Amino acid sequence: MMDVVFWLAQHLLAVLLAGTVRVPEIFLLSLVYRLLTNDRDVNVSVIWAAFAGGLLWDLRWIGIPFFTLCYVLAVLGVMSFWNTLPSSGRTMPIIFFLFWAAQLLPAVLFVLVLERGTGNTDWMLFGLQQGCAVPISFLSAFLYFRHEKSRNV
Q1: Which of 5, 14, 127, 130, by CA, is between 20 and 30 Å from 104?
Q2: CA atoms within 13 A on the CB side of 45
Q3: Is the pLDDT reported for residue 110 higher than 90?
Q4: Residue ranges making up the domain that contains 116
Q5: Cβ neighbours of 105 (radius 10 Å)
Q6: How far is CA 144 from the centre of its chain?
Q7: CA geometry: angle 65, 57, 20, nearest 5 deg
Q8: What does each C-alpha distance from 101 to 1, 34, 108 come to in angstroms?
Q9: Measured between alpha carbons, how far is 130 from 7 in angstroms, rounded to an integer?
Q10: Residue 32: how many CB atoms within 10 A of its CB?
Q11: pLDDT digits (tens, 9 = 90+) for 92-108
Q12: pLDDT at 153
């Protein structure tokens, strides 16, 4: 249910800020958070949520199945990296990197594929998006560690 709220919040921000700044992938970060806080090795519901959210995003904004692929690849990439990472390696910098890298994939591919990455404006908007995404990724990592601390106490 919270994934729907985050998808709607991202969508609303994208409409309100259209043409000024690209909104960070809040929906994708919520999926990664749910993936990391779940105990299962393969979380099929997160993969389906990424597929549905990406498909809705594609149908609303660009009309081709592009973000669907980006969202699913990001979730699968985080899941495969997370499952190979030992418990001792799950530190704050690694968790932050996972959140940041997950939202980075759709952002980079959007600039390279859909906008051709030719103008300085494209990369400036990308930089602004990443500037907003870093604090959100850090907040997500902090919430993950707070969740793990409350679960282990």
Answers
A1: 5
A2: 9
A3: no
A4: 2-18+25-152
A5: 18
A6: 14
A7: 115
A8: 24, 16, 10
A9: 18
A10: 29
A11: 999 999 999 998 888 88
A12: 59
